[in-house]
Amino acid sequence: MTTMTTSRVDARPVASARPVASARPTAARHLPSLTGLRWATAMLIFGHHLMAVEYFGGTADDVWAFVFEAGKTGVTLFFILSGFVLAWGYKPQQSAGSFWWHRFARIYPLHLVGVGLALVAAATLVPEIRTDGAVPLAANVLLVNGWVPDWWQAGNPASWSLVCEAFFYLSFPFLIRPLVRLSARAQTIVVGISLALVALAPQIAALSPVPMSAASTPLLRLPEFVVGVTLALLVKRGAWMPPRLRFVLPLAVVGYALSEAPTLPGTDVHPGLAVTVGAFALLVSSLASADAHRSSTFLARPLWQELGRVSFAFYLVHLLVIASVSSAWPDGHPQLPWRRAVLLALAAFGIALALAFVMHKVVEVPVQRWLLRYDRARTQRAATVAGVEAAR
């Protein structure tokens, strides 16, 4: 999962506001609408996993599947968001080591908690998620299990996406420097190439001599991250003005639906996925542009900000809770009439949200602050400032 950056700005929903094309964005570091979008994205994934565990039965299941079958693309949106936010806040003076330490402090403490909770769930209510062997479990703890397709859901099943994020973070210092130097035209070409690679990823996985998965191998998900990074640079430099949100939202819905489109006949090439990534990238860019031009959307409202801040913790535990709550039914698949299924889903949601708030307040925030005290770059900057002040 990715960095959550927040800010409090005018919370009125003025998403259609649009500055003149020549206006460059303000130097706003925080993009509150993207924090709110994280929560909406987490809800797509939550809905998808309710479908996968079969909370609903009969016609209600068909309706739920129609809406949330594509909910797994919420992870795609998270990857784009991650690249965009990191590039938006990029500081050329920050060393790679400092950047990596910040990312470690951001995701690793909660990751360990998630793995611990998964082990408890596997030993009690949800034995079907039990990891077969110490090596896959260790790989998950170290965030490398996604490189072996058979281990992609070892440990905490939801943390496979963190394996991708860890690879993105490792790559970011090496990607951002050449991308920043490119012209706007060249950056646009990078976006186009990345979208093509998204469509080709299933075919690459099928032809690869090394076992790969288009869904979970970090290298094949990297183009989604690169799209986010590159579009952030284009928006930030004022070289491109994203479309208004009222035009982008319908495109995002179309992209969401096309993720389930078939591959090209006789191939594993999936152009629908490229449309999904492109549409989601437009959504992220449009929301960020609104924030940068002080026209923040309803997603910048305080409630969405608070929920967005806990979305990472919620993501890590929601599937464990969904599976644990449904474990009382045969095979863990309730398949209930819609009224009872909604009540069960609300119970799972409430437990997961409460647990996420506790993890955010007790682990995520304080441990991150403690770890960042050991950032050598920050310590050196503080010492330099202190020395300058003493010399005055």
Helix content range of the residues, please?
A: 55-70%
In whole angstroms, how far apart are the ends? 44 Å
* Large-scale geometry: globular
The number of distinct β-strands equals 0
How many whole angstroms does the radius of gyration measure? Answer: 21 Å
Class of secondary structure makeup = mainly alpha
Number of helices: 14
SSE pattern: HHHHHHHHHHHHHH
Instruction: Tell me the number of structural domains.
Output: 1
* Proportion of strand residues: under 5%
Uncertain parts: 1-22, 383-391
Largest sheet: number of strands, sense, barrel closure: none
Overall average pLDDT: 91
Organism: Microbacterium phycohabitans
Protein name: Acyltransferase
EC number: 2.3.-.-
Keywords: Acyltransferase, Membrane, Transferase, Transmembrane, Transmembrane helix
Question: How would you describe what is shown here?
Answer:
With 392 residues, this protein is an all-alpha fold. The chain has one domain (33-382). The protein is 66% helix and 0% strand. The chain contains 14 helices and no strands. The chain has helices spanning 32-53, 58-68, 74-88, 96-123, 134-141, 160-181, 184-207, 218-236, 245-258, 271-292, 302-309, 311-325, 338-372, 376-391. Helix 1 runs parallel beside helix 12 (311-325). It starts with 31 loop residues before the first helix and ends with a helix. Mean pLDDT is 91; it is low at 1-22 and 383-391.
